């Protein structure tokens, strides 16, 4: 099976059409003697090969939901199925393995290791678990894919913000994950570099069929998505399906 077939460009009946199914997720946290409901029954799906964005004001529960979907936090109740695997009540050891294989993370602050080169940063996820091929070859191929083949041996301090975020995206793709989750990917970039990053994500998606889930405050990011999920007060207020940058 080639990568396009795996990602759903050429549908394969053995590959589930949904990368993620989220059912009735709640999150309750203690505040003094009270319990505060942060998420109030979130249900959504992420389709294979799509770009979906989560938007919402501060306090809407967006960051909490993103952490739960990334397997970094557990819901109070509900269910999350990632690429056919129920991760809701999985032990931390097993969940760490699933995260490494199934989820690529891109952070607003890049989270690159300052003492490592661009190539070494991309290689890092590949040293956990078993992955096919040569680690160094995979890292170089991905850095070439994001347009940084000339920056292999540069450390983060020697790269611009836009270049660091490209390295972060290459690292997120390293294990060939089912889903790439990006938290405010343009948050630390100026307008021009933010637009370049969005074009890169769109190009990567077109080339690889990769599935992206982005959380953002930036309308420009949301405008590139197939669907926009709007959160208000811990609930889904609306889901927009987009055509050519407009909603319906």
Task: Please specify the SSE layout and strand pairing.
Layout (H helix, E strand, L loop, with lengths): L2 H5 L10 E14 L2 E14 L3 E5 L6 H8 L7 E6 L2 E2 L5 H11 E4 L11 H6 L11 H11 L15 H13 L5 E5 L7 H18 L3 E5 L2 H5 L3 E6 L2 E9 L2 E2 L1
Parallel strand pairs: 3-8, 3-9, 6-7, 7-8
Antiparallel strand pairs: 1-2, 1-4, 4-5, 9-10, 10-11
Helix pairs in contact: 5-6, 6-7
How would you describe this structure to a colleague?
The protein is of the alpha/beta class. The protein has a single domain (3-241), classed as P-loop containing nucleotide triphosphate hydrolases (Rossmann fold, 3-Layer(aba) Sandwich), CATH 3.40.50.300. The chain has helices at residues 3-7, 62-69, 92-102, 118-123, 135-145, 161-173, 191-208, 219-223, and strands spanning 18-31, 34-47, 51-55, 77-82, 85-86, 103-106, 179-183, 212-216, 227-232, 235-243, 246-247. The strands form two sheets. Strands 6-7-8-3-9-10-11 form a seven-stranded mixed sheet, with helices on both faces. The protein has a four-stranded antiparallel sheet with strand order 2-1-4-5, with helices on one face. A hairpin with a 2-residue loop joins strand 4 (77-82) and strand 5 (85-86). Helix 5 (135-145) packs across helix 6 and helix 6 packs parallel to helix 7 (191-208). The longest helix is centred in the last third of the chain and has 18 residues, at 191-208.
Descriptive labels:
248 residues, alpha/beta, Rossmann fold, 7-stranded mixed beta sheet, 4-stranded antiparallel beta sheet, 8 helices, 31% helix, globular, nucleotide-binding, ATP-binding, transport, MacB-like_ATP-bd, transmembrane transporter activity
């Amino acid at each position: 099976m080639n990568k396009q077939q795996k990602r759903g460009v050429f549908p394969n009946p053995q590959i589930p059409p949904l990368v993620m199914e989220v059912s009735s997720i709640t999150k309750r946290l203690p505040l003094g003697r009270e319990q505060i409901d942060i998420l109030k029954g979130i249900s959504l799906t992420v389709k294979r090969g799509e770009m979906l964005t989560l938007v919402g004001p501060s306090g809407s529960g967006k960051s909490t939901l993103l952490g739960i979907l990334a397997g970094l936090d557990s819901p109070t109740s509900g269910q999350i199925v990632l690429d056919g695997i129920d991760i809701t009540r999985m032990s931390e050891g097993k969940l760490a393995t699933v995260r490494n294989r199934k989820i690529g993370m891109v952070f607003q602050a890049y989270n690159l290791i300052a003492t490592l080169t661009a190539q070494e940063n991309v290689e890092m996820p590949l040293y956990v678990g078993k992955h096919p091929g040569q680690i160094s070859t995979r890292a170089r191929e991905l850095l070439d894919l994001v347009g940084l083949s000339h920056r292999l041996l540069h450390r983060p301090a020697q790269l611009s913000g836009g270049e660091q975020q490209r390295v972060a995206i290459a690292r997120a793709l390293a294990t060939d994950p089912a889903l790439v989750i990006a938290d405010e990917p343009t948050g630390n970039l100026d307008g021009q570099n933010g637009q370049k990053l969005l074009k890169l994500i769109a190009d990567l998606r077109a080339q690889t069929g990769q599935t992206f889930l982005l959380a953002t405050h930036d309308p420009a990011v949301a405008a590139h998505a197939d669907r926009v999920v709007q959160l208000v007060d811990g609930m889904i207020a609306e889901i927009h399906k987009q055509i050519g940058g407009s909603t319906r």
